Amino acid sequence: MRKILFIGLALLATLPSFAQKTKKERKDERRQRINELIKQEEEGVIAYHKHTAFGLKLTTDGYGGFFEVGRASSIKKALLFQLDISERKHRKEDKQTNLAIPTSPFVYGKINYFYPVKLGVQQQMLLGNKINRNGVSVTGNIGGGLSLGLLRPYYLEVNDIQNQRRKYIRYESADSSTFISPGELQSLNVSGSGLGKGWGDMSIVPGAYGKIGLRFDYGKFNEMLNAVEVGVSAEIYSKKVPQVVSSEYKRLFVSAYVAVMFGRRR
After folding, report:
1. β-strands 165-170, 191-192: how paired?
2. 139: burial class by Cβ within 10 Å (0-12, 13-18, 19+)?
3. Counting beta carbons within 10 angstroms of the beta carbon of residue 81, is it exposed (0 to 12), middle (13 to 18) or buried (19 or more)?
4. At a CB cut-off of 8 Å and minimum separation 6, what does 44 contact?
């Protein structure tokens, strides 16, 4: 019995030194990781596990914004998951005002507002890392995904001569001829309906998109993402999208873009 008690006390006496040694090893490993991160920071190497970012962009036919989540598989490769919402304008859109009386401007012949909502994934590849923390890293992105074209009908506010009041009309209505008749537009004191109309009448045209771009990250600190991206995107939809009366409806849309991004890495 005494022998068993002696062995137990001996084991208990060795536990603190064992725990202390394990704790010291953990500290050494943590210090080594921190030193490696400091070295990478000084050399300009961007090493992270994930990032989140917001961006604003201008395209050759509109504007928009996006939210992005990145997951890195290595220093050189990452997957980017992106939600993109924009407004696409037609090159023939012509904003006019009623010269007879002061009214809100309107777009002649406009049928629908066109809002592409895109959800997709991209492969990001490192093309050139920073020389130092004040340098610029360059990455190439390529990918695509689902695109939902939201069509919001464009309404005009006009005089209802028969009922002596103002009313709203859209191109698909019986009054669609008004949209292409300058004489009627002036006589009915037409004006734009503003942002409040058409949301309850939206339709969806499904499609797909692809994009390719170059991203230039100029952030001074690697944990911060500050970048400019330029590229080209293409969208194709299941049917032709009506935007303006006096133009051919299209299914395929190709545009160039430039975007600014702000985010944080972890």
Report:
1. unpaired
2. buried
3. middle
4. 129, 130, 131, 132, 133, 134, 135, 137, 222
> pLDDT for 224-260, tens place per residue?
889 999 999 999 999 999 999 878 899 999 999 999 9
* pTM, 2 dp: 0.77
Q: Any idea which residue has 């952030």 for tokens?
A: 219
Structure tokens at 140: 């190439």
Q: Which amino acid is at 81?
A: F
Looking at this protein, which amino acid is placed at residue 166?
R
CATH of the domain spanning 47-265: 2.40.160.20
CA separation for the pair 133, 39 (Å, rounded) = 10
Q: Which pairing describes strands 155-160 and 137-153: parallel, antiparallel, or unpaired? A: unpaired
